Amino acid sequence: MSIEITEADAANELMRLAKQIAHHDRLYHAEDTPEITDQEYDALVRRNREIEEAFPHLVREDSPSKNVGHAVAASPLSKVTHEVRMMSLDNAFNAAEVEEWVARVRRFLSLAEDAPLAFTAEDKIDGLSCSLRYEKGRLVRAATRGDGQVGEDVTPNVAHISDIPQQLDGDAPEIFEIRGEVYMARADFVALNTRLMEDARAAAEEKREEFDPSKVRQFANPRNAAAGSLRQKDAGVTAKRPLKFWAHGWGAASSVPGKTQTEMVRQIEGWGVPVSPLFARFESAAEILAHYSTISAQRPELPYEIDGVVYKVDRLDYQQRLGFVAKAPRWALAHKFPAERAETTLESIDIQVGRTGKLTPVGRLAPVLVGGVTVTNVTLHNRDEIARLGVRPGDRVVVQRAGDVIPQLVENLTREESREPFVFPDTCPECGSEAVAAEGEVDIRCTGGLICPAQRTERLKHFVSRGALDIDGLGEKTIDQFFALGWLESPADIFRLKDRRDAILALDGWKERSVDNLLASVEARRAPDAARLLFGLGIRHVGAVTARDLMKNFHDLPELRAVAEQAHAGDEDALAALTSIDGIGGAVVEALGDFFHEDHNKAVWDDILSETSPPRYEVETKDSPVTGKTVVFTGKLETMSRDEAKAQAERLGAKASGSVSAKTDLLVAGPGAGSKLKKAAELGIEVVDEASWAEIVKAAYR
Ligand SMILES: NC(=O)c1ccc[n+]([C@@H]2O[C@H](COP(=O)([O-])OP(=O)(O)OC[C@H]3O[C@@H](n4cnc5c(N)ncnc54)[C@H](O)[C@@H]3O)[C@@H](O)[C@H]2O)c1
Ligand SMILES: [Zn+2]
């Protein structure tokens, strides 16, 4: 993602993000009462990272990218300084990011592409990190991570966690600090919340007070429950909470009895400390990604919550060489499950005006990570959709994004019938023209047409696009810039850019060659294809195919306009001339009539035709065995659309018809052909399949 902000804005935003993230770190790590979801938090962290990557010299001393967790200064528990700093993990949200990490590791170690490189992979349990210091195999101190340097002493508390042995089995080194996660199983978490509620109810009854369930403090998730239960001044409270533990690493150690992560994890297990049952060793990126899929499939059935899979480079000498960046090891990566649904705040509803004048409401969201990408906007489609969801700025909403699908707003969590609904504007926010919905349509459109700036730039972009005039070198940014300079008031101005050669050259980023190339591609369209030009005007209902159908019948643009205007004025013959064309119906006739009814459209049209001279439109035909014959297509075509097949037939000088009759010469039948195929057989008409048809077409062009 590229960041498009000025340096001053970047510095400001980094300052704001540092404050915001520190605030949420405190609520989450120190108080176990997060105010925003993890997806919203992760989006803030991502944004911070992206800006820092774009402006490395602006990275702050107090940058969230350098800090782990939260300082424990205010904690009532005693403090423990970690001998070896406790770290966080870098995140990946998709396979590509994992592969990038593997490639980075290989580059760092200068490993050849085929050199062996093994990894471990295990589920990332959602609890809180805990360090257990064993001396001569005896547990002497347990501590939370805190800010990575200083944590809280929870030695008396872990005495109540049966997964944590007071004495290790077998031979342990002089000093060995086991690190892992204290967590709460899902069922225990649910039971705990239920018990907290019941206890509060009983207490209220005893005191003969009114019971208000909304005042009872319950835990938001098992992670917060585990943290809140472990970090208790009174270890007696911890004793009543069903906490568990598993190990995933180590810190200070007088000796390390293994050469790989795998050997070490098995050793720790051998000392009687649980490790993940899903821990395994793999030989490649593909294999760890496969394990990720296996674990994500099992996730719903696991008795505890996990939020991803952790990969580590297996060889400890490699880990040593890779070392650390900022706050995480280079040799490990957390591949997080991207939440496909996330909660956030709808901050405002903006109305955007499209090329055809359609007013589209866009929801601006507090940034949130959904499906692994930061989402800040969501389309609200139209007025009806806003009414259906009952959304207004300020509402808490659920956003969903699966795969590459664009994000959708699927639910409003703040539905209160009493509040005033959002009022959809009845004027265009761009030009102030009236905005109306046509009979029976849900979409609301600006009636400003080519005088509406939103429609003008969008129409210009469409005008030069591939399917229309196809002018190289006039990209969206250039159009926006030229438009802002007042150089592109109407499409015809494109053909007058040659008079601004020096002015363009004076702009940033333009060189003699690029200006000459641009002007040359404009000149190459002085005699444009009439159907493409017509399509380029962006008249409603006149798409590329319709534009071609119209031009095939009227051959030049002034003739088309004359007929359209006559039809609009009520001329029956003109109307019939239009509607007798295959594929042209009332909507097209009405749209053309409306277009030529507006003076500003007529002016644009005349202007374009004064700058260009499209040659008479003729469908160029090729000689072939089907020239002059009638062809019918039926069944499913696999390599082309029905429209394309018909266009091919026309270029070969054949007539494409929709029904089989005695006049039919050839039937092209794809799979699923039914009655037409039967009729052709009865009439003794030649039948070929799609492949043979393609051969006929190819032969004609040889
Ligand atoms: N909602 C909020 O306001 C808020 C605020 C702060 C943090 N958070 C959440 O907390 C997380 C960030 O915290 P973090 O910095 O501890 O990072 P993290 O939890 O994403 O990853 C680092 C931790 O993962 C743990 N872990 C679990 N399984 C592991 C394994 N197999 N191997 C190694 N480590 C393993 C370790 O304890 C390690 O410290 C994010 O998920 C974030 O969304 C939320
Ligand atoms: Zn408008």
* β-strand amount: 15-25%
What would the average pLDDT be, to the nearest integer? 91
CATH homology superfamily name of the largest domain: DNA ligase/mRNA capping enzyme
Strand order, main sheet: write it out.
2-13-10-3-9
Which structural category do the helix and sheet elements fall into? alpha+beta
How widely separated are the two ends? 46 Å
What level of helicity do the residues show? Answer: 25-40%
What's the total count of β strands?
A: 24
* Computed CA radius of gyration, to the nearest angstrom: 35 Å
In DSSP terms, counting alpha (H) and pi (I) runs of 4 or more, how many helices? 24
The major β-sheet equals: 5 strands, mixed
Residue runs with pLDDT of under 50 for 5 or more positions? none
Offer a few descriptive terms.
DNA ligase (NAD+) activity, DNA ligase, 37% helix, Helix Hairpins, binds zinc ion, 702 residues, alpha+beta, manganese, 5-stranded antiparallel sheet, 6 domains, 24 helices
Explain what you see.
It is a single chain. By secondary structure, the protein is α+β, with helices and mostly antiparallel strands. The chain has 6 domains: 61 residues, Orthogonal Bundle (Helix Hairpins); 246 residues, D-amino Acid Aminotransferase, Chain A, domain 1; 109 residues, Nucleic acid-binding proteins (OB fold (Dihydrolipoamide Acetyltransferase, E2P)); 75 residues, 5' to 3' exonuclease, C-terminal subdomain (DNA polymerase, domain 1, Orthogonal Bundle), CATH 1.10.150; 82 residues, 5' to 3' exonuclease, C-terminal subdomain (DNA polymerase, domain 1, Orthogonal Bundle), CATH 1.10.150; 71 residues, Rossmann fold (3-Layer(aba) Sandwich). It is 37% helix and 19% strand. The protein has 24 helices and 24 strands. The strands form 7 sheets. Strands 2-13-10-3-9 form a 5-stranded mixed β-sheet. A 5-stranded antiparallel β-sheet has the order 16-15-14-17-18. A hairpin with a 5-residue loop joins strand 14 and strand 15. Helix 1 packs antiparallel against helix 2 and helix 18 packs across helix 19. The radius of gyration is 35 Å and the shape is elongated. The mean pLDDT is 91. The structure holds nicotinamide-adenine-dinucleotide (NAD) and zinc ion. The site of zinc ion has 9 residues, from loops. InterPro entries: BRCT_dom, BRCT_dom_sf, DisA/LigA_HHH, DNA_ligase, DNA_ligase_AS, DNA_ligase_CS, DNAligase_adenylation, DNAligase_N. This is DNA ligase.
